[in-house]
Specification:
Blueprint: H1 9-23, E1 26-29, H2 39-66, H3 73-102, E2 106-108, H4 109-142, H5 147-150, H6 153-165, H7 168-179, E3 188-189, H8 196-201, H9 208-241, H10 246-274, H11 283-307, H12 310-324
Helix pairs in contact: 2-3, 2-11, 2-12, 3-4, 3-11, 4-6, 4-7, 4-9, 4-10, 7-9, 9-10, 10-11
Transmembrane segments: 40-63, 75-95, 107-135, 155-172, 212-231, 252-276, 288-307
Main location: membrane
Membrane topology: Multi-pass membrane protein
């Protein structure tokens, strides 16, 4: 008899699962394989949205750099936010487009971990950048006399750097923790990206510690920044309402409204996903939420900022008139 033969049924099952877990070299992203007849329609829609995101955000980055009227902290943060958006969708959408074409979805464990790491890192950076943008508006409206002193170029660069640097070690640690688990149930991820909730579903054993870790990180990088943004805007609204000029109030509200819309769209979907990472989360709801914050919201963000911002529209017209000449 071999050692394996004399093990109990439970022990054999555990040993088999451990062997399967240790030999796992790739996952399969199921994505939209359940609707193969729609793959070319979805491919066309996602490709169009991806190109729109690239074009709109690149345009914002360009005009905020070349137009002297937009050389302010608010547009410096917006330009950085646009750059992060481009990086974010580039991590997710090209892979989705490839999987839609092939309907295979095979992805190595390392590539899956890398994608998750970048999704979390860029998403966390977006959360912190939105907070920095709210702080900029708070200083501009509530403390205008000290605005140029408080929000000088050096401070702005330090804030952006802090948004990136503070996220990286946390995200790397969390990704390592998740992919240190044994994945013995299956290698099929019922999702179109390597996100935390669907990956945790494949883990065998108790994932309670991992779920708590995800919850804590989400609280720090989603709920705390969101609370700071809400606090900032409460102070901003209070200051705006004290303005005697109706025109002044309208202008102040117009500079904040687009940012608030983006905040509620982004934080709403991200909060639901990562503050409820339990593996029993509905797969369809999970996919729908992910479509919102990976494709739809990045598509809407530059449109919201452009159409609701007179300065950007003026700069865009100036750029187009130069191109016509």
């Amino acid at each position: 008899f071999t050692t394996f033969d004399v093990l109990s049924v439970d022990e054999q099952k555990f040993t088999t699962e451990t062997l399967n877990a240790s030999s796992l070299i790739e996952f399969v992203l199921l994505g939209f394989s359940d609707v193969p007849h729609l793959k070319w329609i979805l491919f066309g829609i996602f490709l169009l949205m991806y190109l729109t995101i690239l074009m709109c955000n690149s345009t914002i980055m360009l005009i905020t750099r070349i137009d002297s009227a937009l050389q302010t902290p608010m547009y410096f943060f917006l330009s950085n936010f646009s750059f992060v958006e481009i990086c974010y969708v580039t991590v997710t959408i090209p892979r989705m487009l490839m999987d839609l074409c092939t309907l295979k979805g095979n992805i190595s464990v390392f590539a899956c971990a890398t994608q998750m790491c970048f999704i979390l890192m860029l998403g966390g950076t977006e959360c912190l950048l939105l907070t920095a943008m709210a702080y900029d508006r708070y200083v501009a409206i509530c403390n205008p006399l000290h605005y140029s002193l408080v929000m000088n170029h050096r401070i702005c660069i330090q804030l952006v750097a802090a948004c990136w640097i503070s996220v990286i070690p946390v995200v790397i640690g969390q990704t390592y923790q998740i992919f240190s688990l044994h994945f013995c149930a299956s290698n099929k991820i019922n999702h179109f990206i390597c996100d935390i909730p669907p990956v945790l579903k494949l883990a065998c054993g108790d994932t309670f510690v991992n779920e708590i870790a995800v919850y804590i990180v989400a609280m720090v990088f989603v709920m705390v920044p969101f609370a700071l943004i809400i606090f900032s805007y409460c102070k901003i609204i209070y200051s705006i309402l004290k303005l005697s000029s109706a025109k002044g109030r309208a202008k102040a509200f117009s500079t904040c409204s687009s940012h608030l819309i983006v905040v509620f769209l982004f934080y709403g979907t991200a909060g639901i996903t990562y503050l409820h990472p339990k593996p029993n989360q509905s797969e369809r709801i999970g996919k729908l939420l992910s479509l919102f914050y990976t494709i739809l919201i990045p598509t809407l963000n530059p449109i919201i900022y452009t159409l609701r911002n007179k300065d950007i529209m003026v700069a865009l017209r100036k750029l187009l008139s130069k191109l016509d000449v």
